[in-house]
Amino acid sequence: MAAGLPIRRIEALTDGVFAIAMTLLVLGVELPRGADSLWSRLLVLWPKLACYVLSFVMLGVLWIGHHYQLHHIRRTDRALIWLNLAFLLVITFLPFSTGVMASERLDPAAVALYGGSIIAAGAALYAHWAYATARPALVNPGLDSKLVATLKLRIVAGIALSGVAIAVAYIDTRISLGLFLVLPVAYWWRSRADDLVGDDAPD
């Protein structure tokens, strides 16, 4: 008998939280009022729209990473459930940090807040994966150790790049935002992890 909550319950909760977080992002994009033309007012919105798109894609990257992990996890225990909740806690904070960065885009502290939330999400995702894979009873039999290391490396790389982006923000926030854009683009490249994840998670 599996310990803790069934994996499908965790998947359902996670999917729901991500759906809400992605939806909340767009609520921070409001059309300015005024006598200017519609196109002029839409043009003013481009920084917020850029932050919205960036964060939507970033949430997608984090959701995919979590999906890859759950594909190889077949059981849960109390600690793993709480680690998953810690990950979701950070996910729900991302719309706020996105809104701050969009409103104060030239403020390095705002970029640092956003980058910090990305780092926290990555750290929580890493802890979730490291905990599960250190306990053979929680993962699928015969889980490839190279796959475990590959997923860890991808998370660490994202955390490192976010740290660099935060540091660069105090020199030039435009370069910093460009580095954040590199992160989701890098994850679009196929890796060995993509080849070992099927369409259906194990029961």
Shape: elongated
Measured by DSSP, the beta-strand proportion falls in under 5%
Distance between the termini: 12 Å
How many discrete structural domains? 1
**Number of helices, counting only DSSP H or I runs of 4 residues or more:** 8
pLDDT averaged over residues: 85
- Rg, alpha carbons: 18 Å
List unreliable stretches of 5+ residues. Answer: 198-203
Report on this model:
This protein is an all-alpha fold and 203 residues long. It has eight helices and no strands. The chain has helices at residues 7-27, 38-44, 46-72, 78-103, 108-133, 145-169, 173-187, 192-195. Helix 3 packs parallel to helix 5 (108-133) and helix 5 (108-133) runs antiparallel to helix 6 (145-169). The protein starts with 6 loop residues before the first helix and ends in an 8-residue tail after the last helix.
